[in-house]
Amino acid sequence: MASGGTIEIDATEMSFTPNEFTAPANSTFTVKLKNTGSVLHDFTIDKDGSGKKVEIKAEPGAETTAEVKTGAAGSTLEFYCAQPGHKDAGMDGHIKVQ
User: Fold this and answer.
1) Going from the N-terminus, what domains does the chain have, and what CATH number goes with each?
2) Which positions fall inside the EfeO-type cupredoxin-like domain (predicted)?
3) 2 pLDDT band (50/70/90 cuts)?
4) Pairing between strand 6-12 and 28-35?
């Protein structure tokens, strides 16, 4: 994905698709979260490359967006659904920064 690009992530019951992707170092991109499930889901990064928390929520059938900043090449940003029990059920993923 090029800097300034958009990655679309589908959230359904206890999974993200894709749950792993790459992004360029020291760049900003947009995450488009599309909830194709039947319960509330979110996309959370505790600390992106700028040190800020990223958190967006989408009701079933809805979509929303957020900007994410990457850091240095070789780093990894972890994302997950912060709804109770969702991360523990495997609703998480990684962004590899290159």
Assistant:
1) 6-97 (2.60.40.420)
2) 6-82
3) low
4) parallel
pLDDT by residue (tens digit) across 8-54? Answer: 999 999 999 999 999 999 999 999 999 999 999 999 999 999 999 99
End-to-end CA distance of the chain: 10
Q: Which two tokens stand for residue 79?
A: 């994302």
Q: How far apart are CA 42 and CA 47, in angstroms?
A: 15
Residue 12's DSSP bridge partners are 15
Is residue 3 over pLDDT 80?
Answer: no
Distance CA 47, CA 66 (A): 14
Closest among 65, 67, 3, 70 to 34, alpha carbons compared: 65
